[in-house]
Amino acid sequence: MNKLIILITINILLLGCTTQNQKITINDKSFNIEIADNPAERAKGLMFRKDLDKDSGMLFIFPNSEKHSFWMKNTFIPLDIIWIDENFKIVYIYENAQPCRESCNSITPNKDAKYVLEINAGLADKYKFEIGDKAEII
Question: What span, in angstroms and rounded, lies between the C-alpha atoms of 71 and 108?
Answer without folding.
Answer: 9
